[in-house]
Specification:
about 40% helix; Arc Repressor Mutant, subunit A; Rossmann fold; 5-stranded parallel β-sheet
């Protein structure tokens, strides 16, 4: 099987060495650069399977790199894991809304980052445009064609907006979404969907899901995800 190619962008040489060593040990083909300009050039010439992107870079910073890549037809499908310093919640939210797939905060465990990388690469391999197929996850079954949700075999009624949020999150387990991303995906017609109302909808979803409500996890300062 062809090695997956990972491009690392970080201006700290010790982090580049640490990540490169651990990723190569896992069998990945790794390229490491220290600037956003180099990353953009390499990604355009030979798009990698995954980009590990530090947000604090000299010159073009990580958010601008992310914005450039996601605005280009050739590079927009490259999965991106952001590497951030603690306390950069605003940057994490901005990166996710630009299209980044996940994030880790410094200092981080190489094992955690490797696990995140494997998860994102698996998502890319199996990702298809969400259609009308039935989703079965945990003890929840979602049937979009019937607009029906079964929890442990029992039918549970949801509003159109609640159903839309549940269906959106459940099709992407483990992905973290901001409230704005959830709004854009749902745009409920039975309820005015705003940042605050997303929180209200999630509270209602958890209540109706009962003991299964914990599958919708809050990511503090960012948004929500459906547990894997």
């Amino acid at each position: 099987m062809e090695k997956k190619r990972i491009l690392i962008v970080d201006d700290e040489e010790d982090i580049l060495e640490l990540l490169s060593y651990n990723l190569r040990k896992e069998g990945y083909d790794v390229t490491a650069v220290t600037t956003g300009e180099e990353a953009l050039d390499l990604a355009q010439r030979n798009p990698p399977d995954l980009l590990l992107l530090d947000l604090m870079l000299p010159g073009i910073d990580g958010l601008d790199v992310c914005r450039e890549l996601k605005s280009s037809e050739r590079t927009r499908s490259i999965p991106i894991i952001m590497v951030t310093a603690k306390g950069e919640e605003a940057d994490i939210v901005a990166g996710l809304e630009l299209g980044a797939d996940d994030y880790v905060t410094k200092p981080f465990s190489p094992r955690v980052l490797l696990a995140r990388a494997r998860t994102v690469l698996r998502r890319k391999r199996r990702e298809v445009q969400p259609g009308l197929d039935i989703v079965k996850i945990h003890d929840i079954t979602i049937d979009p064609t019937r607009h029906e949700v079964l929890v442990r075999g029992e039918k549970v009624e949801f509003t159109a907006t609640e159903f839309g949020i549940l269906n959106f999150l459940a099709r992407r387990p483990g992905w973290v979404f901001t409230r704005t991303q959830i709004i854009d995906s749902v745009k409920g017609d039975d309820y005015p969907v705003t940042d605050r109302s997303v929180d209200v909808q999630v509270v209602s979803l958890r209540r109706k899901l009962g003991d299964s409500g914990s599958v919708i996890e809050t990511v503090r300062g960012v948004g929500y995800r459906f547990s894997e």
